[in-house]
Amino acid sequence: LIDASLTFMAAVSDIPITISVDDETYTSGEIITISGNVQAGSITDVAISIFAPNGSIVYVSQVSPNSSGFFSETTNITSTLDAAGTYTVRAQHDSGTVETTFYFIQISDLPNSVTVQNAPGSSTPGCEGTNSCYIPYLVTIGQGGTVTWENNDSAAHTVTSGSVSNGSTGVF
Questions:
Q1: What is each CA distance from 50 to 55, 88, 121, 170, in whole angstroms?
Q2: Dist. CA 172–CA 159, nearest whole Å
Q3: Among the listed residues 36, 31, 32, the one whose alpha carbon sits nearest the alpha carbon of residue 46
Q4: CA 20 to 30 Å from 26, out of 5, 77, 102, 168?
Q5: pLDDT tens digits, 120-144
């Protein structure tokens, strides 16, 4: 019984390292904020590395956690990236190593125009819960680009920016 209690106490005090980025996708020139936590009171710096899709290191930094164990690093690394794809962010500390990813899109790879269609049957409630109201569901275009909406459904539709729960944003 004493051994089990000691093991439990050690497990409670062993707080692993965490890491996250402030967005899932970035384009050239955007700022990335990398943040996370280590055990409170740690005085050991956190080593942060970013790896390109081909595995090469494109960014290295070292950041000190505050007294509660929080750390944060802000960088404009996207202005120097030259390959679209999934990048890996790694944080290393005495308490372990963790990774997260983000996707980088080169602005030159973005289309200037996209056509979005209402999905057949999208006038019936429920498609918003499964992201199946529009084909494609999500698009990214270059600044100043054009989105054309086509209605291939048998019901009349309108397109308005916003959400079902919060209403129109007035953007379009």
A1: 9, 6, 44, 38
A2: 8
A3: 36
A4: 168
A5: 888 888 887 888 888 888 787 777 8
